[in-house]
Amino acid sequence: MTESQVWTLASLAQHLGAQLVGDETCRIVALNTLQDAGEGDLSFLANPAYQRYLTDTRASAVILRPDFAHLFDGNKLLLDNPYMAYARLTALFNTDTGYAPGIHPSAVVHADAEVAADAHIGANVTLASGVRIGAGAVIGPGCVVGADTVIGARTRLHANVTVYHGVAIGEAVTLHSGCVIGADGFGFAPGRDGWVKIHQLGGVVIGNRVEIGACTTVDRGALDDTVIGDGVIIDNLVQIAHNVKIGENTAIAGCTGIAGSTTIGKRCTIAGAACIAGHITIADGVHISATTLVTKSIEEAGSYSSGTGMAPTRSWRRNAVRFGQLDQMAGRLAALEKKLSD
C-alpha cells in the first residue's frame, strides 16, 4: 500500500462534502462492508437491511445518512446519499491505475494507424490500417482493432477485446475483457437451397462514458449503425443485435438479449435476463424487471414485468396446469355472467 492510499477522515469528509463526527485524524486505508470491516476500514450503510451490522462492526468509521447517526457511536461521515459517497470513494482506493505511454514491442501496428503519443498499446495488440487511438487511451494485451476504427481519448480496452472494422468509440469508454464490438448481425435471407447471408454494411457508434461488461457483444448494423448513447452501462454477457439504438444513461443487466432494430429510450433500467423482441420502441424512463419478455412497444414510462415468480415445485406445477385452463375458465365465467344477467 502506498502512502497516497492512506487518507485521514478529515480529508475524505472534505472530498465528499460530508459532516464529520469523531476523530479527524483517523487513518483510513481501505473500504469494506460493515460485517467484514476492521481497523483502518471505512464502511457505509446504504440499505437499511444491513442496519443490524452497525452494532458489532469493527470499522474505524462509517458513512451514514444524518437520520441514522444515532445508531452508531463511532467515527462517522454524514451525508444524504451514502451509496453515492461510497461510489465516489472507490476511485481514491482503486489500485488499477497508471499505464506508461508507448507501444509494446510485440504489438502489430499498421503503418498508417495513428496512435496518440500518450496512449498505451499493450503486448500482442493488433491495430489495422486506418485505426486512430486517442490521447490517454489504454489498449490492453491481446486486443484486436479492425480497419478504420476510431477509439477516443481516455478509453480503455481491457485484455482480449475485439473491435471490428468501421467502429467509432467515444471518450472515457471502458470495454471489459472478451467483449466483441462490431461483429456481423444475424442477417440471413431464406432461399430454396438454404440461407443466404446478408452482409452487414453498417457499423457501431458508441458514445462517451460508456461501460460494457465482459463477453458482451454489440453487432454492427445491417445498413445503418448500431448506436449506444452517452453514459450507457451494460453488464456482462449481454447480446445487442444489429441496428439497436440505446438512449443516454440507460443501464442493462447481465444475460439480457435485445433483438435487431429495437430502440430503447433514455434513462431506462433493464434487469437481468430480460428478452426484448426486435423492431419495437421502448420509451424513456422505463424499468423492465428480471426475465421479462417484451414483445411489443412500451410507450409510457413506468415499471413492466412478465412471467411468474418462484414457488415450491409442487405448487408451481399445479399453477402451470391451471394456466392452461384459463381460456376455458374465462369462457365458463362469461357464460355464467350472461345467464345471471338474463
- Which regions have little confidence, pLDDT < 50, spanning 5+ residues? none
Biggest β-sheet, characterized?
11 strands, parallel
Distance between the ends: 84 Å
Report Rg. 26 Å
Fourth-tier CATH superfamily name of the largest domain:
Hexapeptide repeat proteins
> Architecture of the largest domain, according to CATH?
3 Solenoid
Mean pLDDT: 96
Trace the largest sheet across and list its strands: 8-11-14-17-20-25-28-31-34-37-39
The portion of residues assigned to helices is: 10-25%
Q: Give the overall form.
A: flat
Domain tally: 2
The level 1 CATH classification of the largest domain is: Mainly Beta
Summary, kept brief:
With 342 residues, the protein is an alpha/beta fold. Strands 8-11-14-17-20-25-28-31-34-37-39 form an eleven-stranded parallel sheet, with no helix packed on it. A ten-stranded parallel sheet has the order 9-12-15-18-21-26-29-32-35-38, with no helix packed on it. Strands 10-13-16-19-24-27-30-33-36 form a nine-stranded parallel sheet, with no helix packed on it. A hairpin with a 2-residue loop joins strand 22 and strand 23.
What is the fold's blueprint, element by element?
Elements: E1 7-8, H1 9-16, E2 19-21, E3 27-28, E4 30-31, E5 41-44, E6 61-64, E7 75-78, H2 82-93, E8 102-103, E9 108-109, E10 114-115, E11 120-121, E12 126-127, E13 132-133, E14 138-139, E15 144-145, E16 150-151, E17 156-157, E18 162-163, E19 167-169, E20 174-175, E21 180-183, E22 188-191, E23 194-197, E24 204-206, E25 211-212, E26 217-219, E27 226-228, E28 233-234, E29 239-240, E30 245-246, E31 251-252, E32 257-258, E33 263-264, E34 269-270, E35 275-276, E36 281-282, E37 286-288, E38 293-294, E39 302-304, H3 313-324, H4 326-341
Parallel strand pairs: 4-5, 5-6, 6-7, 8-11, 9-12, 10-13, 11-14, 12-15, 13-16, 14-17, 15-18, 16-19, 17-20, 18-21, 19-24, 20-25, 21-26, 24-27, 25-28, 26-29, 27-30, 28-31, 29-32, 30-33, 31-34, 32-35, 33-36, 34-37, 35-38, 37-39
Antiparallel strand pairs: 1-3, 2-7, 22-23
